[in-house]
Amino acid sequence: MRAYYQLTLAQLRIYVRNRQALIWTLLFPFFFMIIFGLMFNDGNTTTYSVNLIDYDKTQASKEIVSILNKQNSLKIHQKSDEEKARKSLSDGKTDFVILIKKGFQDQVTSKKNIPAQIQVLYNESKMGQLQGGIATITANIDGASKQMAGYTPKVVTTLKGVEGITLSYLDFLVPGIIAMQIMNNNMNGVAGQIASWRERGVLRRMQGTTLKASTFIAAQITARLILNSLQAILTILIGYYGFDVSIRGSFLLVVLFVVLGTLTFMSIGFIIASLAKSPESAGPIAGFISFPLMFLGGVFFPVNNMPEYLQPIIKTIPITHLSTAMRDIMNIGATFGDLASDFGWLCVWMIVSFLIAAKTFRWE
Amino acid sequence: MDSIIEVKNLQKKYGDFYAVNGISFEVVKGEVFGLLGPNGAGKSTTMEMLVGLRKPDGGTATIAGHSIGKDASKIKQEIGIQLQSTSLFELLKVKEIIELYASFYPSHIPIQPLIDEMLLTEKQNSLVKGLSGGQKQRLAIALALIHDPQIIFLDEPTTGLDPQARRTLWDIVLTLKERGKTVVLSTHYMDEAHVLADRIGIMDQGKLIALDTPNNLVSSIEAESAIEFKTKSPERVDEFNHLESVTNIVVNHDFVTLYTRNLQFSLIALLEYTKEKDISISDLSTRSATLEDVFLSMTGRGLREE
């Protein structure tokens, strides 16, 4: 018991004294949140940039402009140079050009049965992306037209938005970062450290004492669980206080998945340490495995958007289940029941890799 | 005499190569037993088999009555080891790592006196990383002593140390002996073996080629002195065999060593013979025979050559 305590303490001391690792650990989540937060924090709302030229400048035309201006999804820039506006449209710099011709108000008020024209130009090659914008513009102008005509509709649809959870990209990102940290710290960390200790004879010297291998491994696990839990808490706190990331789920459930992820990726780290012929090769092997996992495993991007042929791989790898579970707990307050399948997958990964790790482990 | 270590026909094979090829010896309780030999002679492999870090491919050994391979954990309590290739956690402090190793055993000796004794008092709060070679070796010995073992294995404890650090370490080994510890020590420095060891086993190419006290080993080559010189015609040195009192000749490229029972007679004979036959010699010197010569005369090679 004393050996277990001392070894755990030793590992924590080594970790804290390794400045580079420590700084990396502390700054890493912060760094990622800032970069990705700045890049993508607009959330899912798409906006269209619109150049509007009002040649008429009358009561009627101004009313149309003010209606369009109220639409959040349209960014209206009032212009006067049609030439320039058309050019920037064909260059793809704006999405729409709206032209209100001179005499617009006269047409509106005239008794003839010809409707007044508003010309909407769009970039044909971007048709697909612009559908939403076209719909918004036509709907609003149509509404304005009905209002001006004093038309009372016989049938109306009432649309009512139901209040939902608003999630920003950072809400999505922070659980992913926690999952990634667990993977990197344990898989890459264990692989590198054990391979180097073995190479340098650190393990062999301990083998020459009455210390049991199980005590050594238990202490390693304990120390890493403590470190990872602290790191996850730190990341959550930075996200919560620094970036207004929402946390809805149970803290205990977060800890449960931190533990499960730590054990799984530690075991994989031990396997890599056994496979590696030298500490120099352990790093690249671990990197070679963790890098694709990071991108396939839903750390930065939602896995649903990945190509169909990748889905079977994505649904198998452990990092996907870890990041999904973390995300569901933090973002939508998932309960243990909701996460049963992720829990199951991680357990299978943990048991299988632990068995392989135990079989392949060597002191030297 | 009480044997505390008994080794019988111990073997270790790597592929077709015998790193240790059937060696047998006994170590008496309370003595310093030296294993002397060049790099690659099998000293470290022998020690590693005895302390339970390598499995022998043949032969048996008992340590304090426990047979190796069977009572590994009992043996580990009786022995303290310092390995040639040991490195320790670099980011722990001296005192911390001693406390850590102390925790691996059921009981241990007081830590502070041990630190003082190993001359690490000033360094006890320094990281292992920042220790000098001599300090690291003294720390390694402290770790070997922490559980108060009867037998201490030191594998080339002074290799790579400066002369002063070596002498400090010698004093430590002699103190251990005074306290009744049994020490098994490997080295490729013959002066070290001579100063420290009560008995010496000389190893070469996996075999034990001689085993005796340092003085008996030196007298075994039947020569009190050595005459050394260089010659341009080493192919003719066999002729020197007939010179008066010469017992053995060892040639290494152009460097010749003649062993003699009577320095004066042999030297005169050598000078006269080389003059008569017109063999040119240079860099002539004489000295007393040492353990180095024992090894040289047995193998034809120096201790520190490849």
UniProtKB/TrEMBL annotation, chain A:
InterPro entries: ABC-2_transporter, ABC2_TM, ABC2_TM_bact-type. It is found in: Membrane. Keywords: Membrane, Transmembrane, Transmembrane helix. GO terms for cellular component: membrane. GO terms for molecular function: ABC-type transporter activity. The chain crosses the membrane at residues 21-40, 225-243, 249-273, 285-303, 343-361. Gene3D superfamilies: abc type-2 transporter like domain. The keyword Transit peptide does not apply. Residues 135-364 form the ABC transmembrane type-2 domain. Pfam families: ABC2_membrane_3. It is a multi-pass membrane protein. Its main location: membrane. This is ABC transporter permease. It comes from Gottfriedia solisilvae.
